[in-house]
Design goal:
Number of strands: 10
Distance between the termini: 101 Å
Strand content: 25-35%
Largest sheet: 6 strands, mixed
Order of helices and strands: HHHEEEEEEEEEEH
Radius of gyration: 24 Å
Shape: globular
Helix content: 10-25%
């Protein structure tokens, strides 16, 4: 960069430096807490991901800062919404020891200036001061709607849940609302509680888009195999004692 010494040129240079300082400040917003590159594998539960977003990506965070974490650092697959400007998502799939393929579907809404308005974790709003997910439309008397059953094959989970299903309610005006469920933790030894979703299909774990790849679980699958073996044993019906001759 060249620095001018003349009065008028110096004023222009100061203006340029102020602009660069503003850009640098904007790029750092929402990232002050990040002391290491973001990794999806470092987040275990749905609540953990929401807390991380609240801490690092408040309303107003520039789009490039969010993408730097979830796409450039984390390796998520960027997908733009097919019809809505300023809406995009970041997909990341983890094969949990062949028992379940966990999907992170992190979607984000931005204003016309590229400032974050809301982020969603698998279709659920993460920022309390951002807009809420619009409620499903009320049924119109005499209006026509339908209920669809959607299936998402997961052949990689050949030891467990190799097919995910959910119901999609299609309203008369074309709006859609998905009802489905999945685990609350990305840990094959402890998948947590069953978590029920009510959201837009595009933002959900049942969406039709594919991630660029499915990564293998970074932990030890031995504990997962033991936990699944215990669960299978506990699920078996108890054998009744044999009855002797009467």
């Amino acid at each position: 960069m060249k620095f001018a010494l003349a009065g008028g040129a110096l004023r222009r240079s100061r203006s340029g430096l102020l602009s660069l300082a503003f850009i640098a400040t904007a790029a750092s917003q929402g990232s002050a807490e990040r002391t290491a590159p973001f990794r999806y594998e470092g987040v275990v539960s749905l609540d953990d991901m929401k807390a991380l977003i609240q801490r690092n990506d408040p309303v107003g965070t520039p789009r490039q800062v969010v993408r730097a974490a979830f796409v450039d650092q984390g390796g998520g697959t960027l997908k733009l919404h097919p019809t809505r400007t300023g809406v995009e998502k970041y997909l990341y799939d983890i094969n949990l020891c062949r028992y379940y393929v966990w999907r992170w579907n992190i979607s984000a809404d931005y204003d016309a200036g590229g400032r974050l308005q809301q982020m969603y974790v698998n279709g659920e709003p993460a920022l309390p001061d951002g807009p809420a997910l619009p409620p499903p439309p009320k049924p119109v008397p005499g209006g026509k709607g339908s209920i669809l059953v959607v299936a998402k094959p997961r052949p990689e989970a050949d030891k467990g849940e190799n097919r995910l299903t959910a119901e999609v309610f299609v309203f008369a005006g074309g709006d859609q609302r998905l009802i489905g469920a999945g685990p609350s933790r990305a840990d094959p030894a402890n998948l947590g509680r069953l978590h029920v979703y009510s959201t837009e299909p595009w933002r959900s774990i049942f969406d039709a888009d594919a991630a660029d790849r499915i990564v293998s679980y970074a932990g030890d699958c031995t504990a997962a195999d033991a936990a699944q073996a215990r669960a299978s044993t506990q699920a078996r019906p108890a054998k009744l004692p044999r009855q002797g001759p009467q």
